[in-house]
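Bench notes, afternoon.
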Amino acid sequence: MMLLAAFGLTEAGWIILGAALGYAFMRFQERARQQEFETQRKEQLEATKREADSLLREARVTANEEAIKLRNQAELAYVTRQQEIAGAEQRLAQREALLTTQLEGFIQREKSLQSQQGSLDQREAALEKCRAEAEALAQERRTLLAKAAQLSEAEARAQLLKECESAALRDANEVSRRILADGKSRAEEQARRILSLAIQRYAAQHTYETTTATIALTGDEMKGRIIGREGRNIRAFEALTGVTVLIDDTPGAVVLSGFDPVRREIAREAMQRLILDGRIHPTRIEEVVAKVKEEMDENVRKAGEDAIFRAGVPPLHDDIAQVLGRLKFRMSFSQNVLDHSVEVAHLTGLLAAELGLNVAAAKRAGLLHDIGKALQQDMEGSHAMIGAEFLKRLGEAEDIVNGVAAHHDEVPHTCLWGILVSAADAISASRPGARSETMDTYIKRLENLEKIALGFPGVDKCHAVQAGRELRVFVHPEAVTDDQAAALARNLCRKIEDEMQYPGQIRVTVIRETRAVEFAK
């Protein structure tokens, strides 16, 4: 109370003053809390702004990366498309060049034919002149003969022609029989002995498997995976392997088409591995195809070296062995060309042994005779000439090169290897089970044989029998004599040899039958 009295305030005044001070202190604390809250709110707002700016920067960076990625993909697709277009243009240019070369060849042939036609016209004019002179001399001779024999011109001509024809036919047939009998007696027995010994001493399989380019699939859904999104998988596969992938409506199968047998084999092996792996996309396709190509080069080289070893030939040049191995994937009338080459090598060696010749050189020529078939996809010309040029570049001996080039009589024979290889090639191709022919080829050969026979005068009918190995010809007996029948058989053989290609030999039999029919009443 004394304290209150000292400040001159009453108790109520002090209470009011205390309340005022308390209220002022509370207001001070509230303003402090509001300022602290406002400070925190500003800090949170600034933190939120900083976070938003950071997110915006990250979004912009991500968007820029995606844009760059899309642009790179678009540029890659554009480059790929440009490369495809360039490849197509290059192929078109190559085809145009090939057509131009063929056209130039045709023009050159036409000029050559025109030149030959002019030469033939000149020869025909000279022949016509000689014929006129011969006709005048014949007329003079007929007049003299008619006076001497006291016969008419027609009678003298008929008698002279008949006597000349009979004498000429007798002389010709006698000479032909003597020559044929002498040649057969000296050559047929020896040739038959040599060929039969060679055939009997060599044993080979009688059937060959025909490889196909058909790949079996586990299900039709695999076709969609092979094609890929918008066809990218199949395009990548075709570009890397160089073959065409045919996907049709055949269930559970896909077909690979290509002219190069090695590429087709690479594509077949790569496709099988991709199907077994299940991961089919352009990158995986590129890896698998590259791996298969490396393995295929090694397999081709080993196949060539194995063929050289099986044929018993000394080691050859590495490039020759590599090209020879490619024949493992080449088929001819269902006969494997590499196995056929080894077989021809053995047969040529056996023939050379019977004749007392160099067996090693004969085997070498026989093994390499069809090597040009492995190079025909890249070069133009017959396989014999292509193979001979290839071997000549690699330093093979001249007699071996000539044996390869001449085994189809495309160049003259300078040694015996071409003749022996040709005989061994015919034996290998014509023995039972070695090759298969289509029905069209078989029927066409029979028709050609009968057509050739019917083109000769005096032929009544003919029949090709024993799968075209024999031709039986029936003639009109009143138009063809016995002597003329023998001449007809020889002429038929020559025409068949000139106009047809066939393995082995064809027997021609001319039948002349005379029937006398009477009726007793």
